[in-house]
Amino acid sequence: MAAARRVMAALAALLYAGLLLAPTRSTREVSARKYPDRRPVRFWHMWSAEWKDVVDQIVERYNRSQTRWELIALSVPSTGEVQLSDTKFLLGAVGGDPPDVMAQWNPVIPTWADSGLLMPFEELMSPEEKAVFNREAYPIVRKIGSYKGRTYGIPTAINAFAIYYLPRHFQEAGLDPDHFPTTLEELTDVAARLTRREPSGSLTRLGFLPHDWAHTAPLFGGGFYDYATGRLTLDRPENLRALEWLVFLRRRVGFDDFIRFQAGLNTQSFGGGWPFIGEAYSICVDGQWRVEQIARYAPRLEYRTAPVPPPKGGVAGAGYSNGNFMVIPRAAAEKQGAWDFVKFWSGIADPERAAEFYTWGGWLPITDRIARAPAFRTYL
Question: Which one-letter DSSP state was computed for residue 274?
């Protein structure tokens, strides 16, 4: 109840400020119906540009695969730290006019589930479907969408993060690109040798751009949540060491210098404007989807990948993983149609058919059956 009151208070403040109006039935996504005899299933997602094209292909494939529902997609982009898509969803859910299904990647499930806004998938799955999901989905897949023992999100892709680096920069600095650092301490030293500045002192190239605290803490043996007790563990010593290392890196290049350098880059680009493609970073940590983007926008770029090394005494192979997942609002009008689409895209219904979707977006599959499907094996 406390969480629900906080959500309501936040929404009231937004409405008062006039930042976003709740969707009404007059603005529902019912225009340009291609299949007016079917029941409409409204689908909101946050992809734009080339990613929207991929989603549109999946939606069209779904609509051609059956004759009962028409999936109607709406892109509600979420830019940087401004999560207007989340706000639009909350306003719609509280106002009784939410989408029937929404694709997410933000950590919204605990708050939204506690507020009673989400439908547990256990209430939609048949016993057979539940058994298949629990048996075949990777443990991380089940973990991403679960909260308090119930499944509120079904992933349609898993993200893995790794080092991307430019061997030419290594060679220019007298470093061997065939021997990437195996400890975070070595990587810290290499980063300093790769960083470049103008005579004025302004940064022209950053030797290493790490990911955020959540991605870094596992390398030190840390973590922010104890699943056994349900308690936050932000103050663990391992987390503190990870944070201290991130602060050290930023302090070494200069806080103001870093901010000015980043301000001149398109850091939100998911296309050819990605700063790594422009060689603004010698080393960075990013997701697997970048492989597809480099192949498309910079096919001649020579780059390599490597695991993110742990610090001495840390945890080798540790890291952070998240994914794209589907949620169905408790107030959705077409829950069964929404669930049918989730099964279609995720591969729960047909792994071999869904394998092709994962190749379109450069996404990692949620089960072995999808990973072993001919379409995905050919893609690899």
Answer: -
Q: Which residue has the tokens 């109840």?
A: 1
Read off the tokens for 99. 């989408």
* Tokens standing for residue 350: 């047909």
Choose the CATH number for 165-320 among 3.40.50.10240, 3.30.230.70, 3.40.120.10, 3.40.190.10.
3.40.190.10
pTM of the model: 0.85
Structure tokens at 155: 């992933």
What fold does the segment set 2-152+328-349 form as a domain?
D-Maltodextrin-Binding Protein; domain 2 (3.40.190)
Q: Which helix (H) or strand (E) holds 66?
A: none
CA of 198: how far to CAs of 53, 257, 377, in Å?
40, 12, 46
Q: Tell me what the mean pLDDT of segment 45-71 comes to.
A: 94
Strand partners, 346: none
Specify the amino acid at residue 194. Answer: L
Smallest CA-to-CA distance from 51 within 88, 78, 20 is with 78
Give the tokens for residue 143: 């973990």
Inter-CA distances, 134 with 57, 137, 142, 373, Å: 28, 6, 7, 19
Q: What share of the chain is helix, strand, coil (3-state, %, to 5)?
A: 45, 20, 40
**37-46, 56-65, 91-100: which range is least confident on average?**
91-100
Measured in residues, the chain has a length of 380
Looking at residue 160, the DSSP 8-state letter turns out to be E
Contact 283, 208 (CB under 8 A): yes
Task: Please report how the helices 2-17 and 84-94 are oriented relative to each other, as an axis angle in degrees rounded to 10.
Answer: 110
